[in-house]
Amino acid sequence: MIKRKPLILTLMTVFLFILISKSLASATIVDLSKGEFYSSADVYQMALKLESKYPSIIHIEVIGQSVDQKPLFAVLMTKDIDDVRHRDDFNVYRQHYLVEAGTHARETVNPLIVMKQIEDYAMDYYQDEHIPEFHLSQELEDVVIHFLPLTNPDGFDLVKFGKDSIQTQEGLTALLRVDDHDYPNFKAGITGVDHNRNYPQEYFDFEENVWVDIWQTYLNQFYSDQPSGAFYPGPYPASEPEVQAVMDYILSYDFRNYISFHSRGTIIYWHKYFAPDYYNHRTKDLAQSVSAVNGYKLSDQDSGKGSGYISDFTSSQTLKPLITIETLPAWTELPTPNHLYLDAYEKNRLIPLIAIQNGKKIGYHPYRLYVEYTYVRDFEDLLYAKAIAQKYDGEIIEGTGIPPMILEKEKRAHSIYELLLKYFPLI
Ligand SMILES: [Zn+2]
């Protein structure tokens, strides 16, 4: 006689199967309750897992290596990413937005905030009720969000796991040259250079018609003249490979605005003393829309002291708004303890989407920079546009609407004629 399984057992097996498959389907990759324990390698692995789980909207691109040979990576997110990123007109086919985090080593919550944003946005793309305020399936038809979740992986690992986290002899030699051994308190990379003092800084002097280098010209009290856990700007601008990679990336696309996450103080920095009024007006507007969501206060106007910030570079080279958002209250301990991750995330979950909303309402500006007949970016004012064009040996074409990616034939002919005139003024 065949022994039959009791019905109750069969039902229990079926129930268990449903339970397991449901929990597998909803299992998330980024777990904020473990935020404190993740290494830079874990963060990179998470990014790769998100790419394999959501391949039609997420693409990971390695954009460089840190001093200790750890990958610096960008996460690109848009609909049908693998088709559209190969298009010649990718730069204007959809608008581009940049979110950056992890520049300062001990500000460890932000890379995880950004990773969780990526996961939540991907989930909402397929399941619209996941983020009730936005429809990612629609957003990602219009925009490409570029996330740089962890731009100082060596520092991130050093503050969490100490010297043993260094994997190359070159990395160890660099760290041992730094006299400051208070590793958990590091903002710098392992060479003792504060990356957010290492960006080139210059402005255009309209009277003299020249670009003026003001890197480390006007200092504030936060300055170190030697490699240290914080505030040492480096031997020269962009001396650090991490900074070079981010700079190249910033200039590779026509980003409409930028978000840079730091910690701490629950404040938003927006003003640039050397930038034109329209820049500060737009940046303040962006800061206000973000503040309305995360509740952080706006900074005072920039004193002009202190130098080499990522915002100095982007504002002078692209004139597109960048705001620096300082997550976490001023009293918090850094690197960030586990219990603060969730609240910091909840406050900032929507911020990139708010920045996109703000950028979309502005539209394209009339003065467009073309280098070798290819569109680079647009400017609000002709004088500044010309100053940038002179720097890149490009030309400015006036227009409305979405800029054509490649200059049309007549315009090419026209600009070749102008070029000839420049060299042979008598024709
Ligand atoms: Zn910072």
3D architecture notes:
The chain folds into 2 domains: 32-360, Zn peptidases (Aminopeptidase); 367-423, no CATH class. The protein contains 15 helices and 13 strands. It has helices spanning 7-26, 40-53, 81-84, 90-93, 109-126, 136-142, 153-161, 169-176, 241-252, 277-294, 310-318, 341-348, 351-360, 382-392, 409-423; strands at 58-65, 71-77, 95-101, 143-148, 202-205, 210-213, 255-263, 267-269, 297-298, 322-327, 367-371, 374-379, 395-398. It has an 8-stranded mixed beta sheet with strand order 1-2-4-3-7-10-8-9, with helices on both faces. It has a 3-stranded antiparallel beta sheet with strand order 12-11-13, with helices on one face. The protein is globular. The chain binds zinc ion. Zinc ion binds next to loops.
Which labels suit this protein?
binds zinc ion; 39% helix; 2 domains; single chain; three-stranded antiparallel β-sheet; 427 residues; alpha/beta; globular
Explain briefly what this protein structure is.
The protein has 427 residues and is α/β, with parallel strands linked by helices.
Outline: globular
Class by alpha and beta content: alpha/beta
| DSSP strand tally | 13
List the uncertain runs.
none
Helix and strand string, N-terminal first?
HHEEHHEHHEHHEEHEEHEHEHHEEHEH
Task: Work out the radius of gyration.
Answer: 24 Å
CATH architecture of the largest domain: 3-Layer(aba) Sandwich
Residues in helix, %? 25-40%
With strands numbered from the N-terminus, the spatial order across the biggest sheet is 1-2-4-3-7-10-8-9
Q: How many helical stretches?
A: 15
Q: N-to-C terminal Cα separation, in Å?
A: 107 Å
How much of the polypeptide forms β-strand, as a percent range? 15-25%
* Main sheet attributes: strand count, strand direction, barrel closure: 8 strands, mixed
Number of domains: 2
CATH class label of the largest domain: Alpha Beta
CATH H-level superfamily title of the largest domain: Zn peptidases
Q: If you average the pLDDT, what whole number results?
A: 92
- Associated small molecules: zinc ion
What CATH calls the topology of the largest domain is: Aminopeptidase
